[in-house]
Amino acid sequence: xxxxxxxxxxxxxxxxxxxxxxxKEEYKTYLHSGCKAVWIDNSSSTLLDPTQETGDLTQQNxxxxxxxxxxxxxxxxxxxxxxxxxxxxxxxxxxxxIQVLEIPSTPTLTPPSVSVSExxxxxxxxxxxxxxxxxxxxxxxxxxxxxxxxxxxEQPDKTYVKVSTLNFTASEPNTNLTCSAVxxxxxxxxVLSSSAQITVDITYPSRNTRVTVSPSGPVTEHSNIILNxxxxxxPAVQHYHWYKTDGGTHTLIGNSSVLNMKASRDTTAIxxxxxxxxxxxxxxxxxxxxHYPPGNTKMTVTPSGPVTEHSYIMLNxxxxxxPxxxxWYKTDGGTHTLIGNSSVLNIKASRDTTAIxxxxxxxxxxxxxxxxxxxxxVCETEGNPIxxxxxxxxxxxxxxxxxxxxxxxxxLRSVLTxxxxxxxxxxxxxxxxNNSVGSDTQTFEIVxxxxxxxxxxxxxxxxxxxxxxxxxxxxxxVLLCMIRIxxxxxxxxxxxxxxxxxxxxxxxxxx
Length: 511
Description:
- By secondary structure, this protein is mainly beta.
- The protein has helices at residues 451-495, 505-510; strands spanning 6-10, 15-17, 36-40, 46-48, 64-66, 76-82, 88-101, 108-110, 114-117, 121-130, 138-142, 147-154, 160-169, 175-184, 190-192, 196-214, 219-220, 224-234, 239-246, 249-254, 258-262, 269-276, 279-282, 286-287, 290-291, 298-302, 312-318, 328-332, 335-340, 344-348, 358-362, 367-370, 374-384, 388-392, 399-406, 411-419, 427-435, 438-446.
- It folds into five domains: 6-101, Immunoglobulin-like (Sandwich), CATH 2.60.40; 108-194, Immunoglobulin-like (Sandwich), CATH 2.60.40; 209-291, Sandwich (Immunoglobulin-like); 298-356, no CATH class; 361-451, Immunoglobulin-like.
């Protein structure tokens, strides 16, 4: 005989018990259409009466559907075949255990877990038992990500399950799928089972990479800021890289998800790169708002030369500052009047608007000249109020002098003179010009003979001078000796001449 060992049934519903039996050959002739199947318990009490849905006993098919399942049916049952003849037999060797449930069993999901790469096809099955073939459950997916196919599948024990197959393409990260089963009672009411849930683990490369900055608003130069790089990735991000960008040049400045740095005007455009084992992604460029005070403020006037009254002139102010705020004033003695608040000021030339504040501007004719003995540097600046000038240069024992003179009420000229500079090549001298509205700087590069080179030259000149002196002295001595020899020869010549010889006594007597 064949029976499932157990079968679950919903209280108030029906149950179908698959069943088949065999009888000895000599008893088969006793099987007829009047035979009936009786289901009894261990005490031989009849608990279930077969209905018209009983299988064909003449074909040894005892499959039976029972209705009105209640708590009293929650036990083991055996089949007895009664044909009102010699064939009356109870199959005690096999029985079926009916388990009556108030709430249906939870559906089963197959496979129990899913891990796929983004873009791959996924197939997940939800199955629930069908206790009664005439009242199969309804299976519902949430969310519905793709196509659904439903089938009834026979199990090895001849019972049935309903299978709903969901086919979709993996796209959403960490998708939670839920399958629910709704069973019906014979009175028309419905019972919802517990839901089965599965998380579809979808792997994908880094994406949605972004940067957050703390503090989020503008910060002052040299203050501390914290930048955080985050990215959606599965598996998780393994490496982070930070870059500052200047045009087409990218410079690596960090290698962790968090970057601590000091605000700098040279580092205002930053992006991060997130990388997992499937790929990398760059964040968009984050522009930091760094505030720093004005510097290198300059003004230009168009036209640059004298203009006639009532003609138009344009003044342009530029400055290294963030934020940039430009204010234009005209001055009359100690009174300052605001006349503009943008970087460009367009005005009509007027005899009462001749004194305009503007930052220093060092004129292009400023220069340095000189040699190893003396260096002179001239720095000329224009501004209103008239600027001051300060010099920066190597501090040595060299004597230096600074003289300044105003060339006009807006122009100052300063001269730096250095006597015998004790510097090595090259030397940088800087002229700083500033007034109350700005500053300007001019750098001069000086190349001259270093003290070592001068000493080397003296070392060569001294031996040459000594040698020349010795040679000159030798020549003088030789000349003196020659003069002395000539004098001696001259004297000898005079003594030996006839006019100068004395007469002997004999000669005198002969006379």
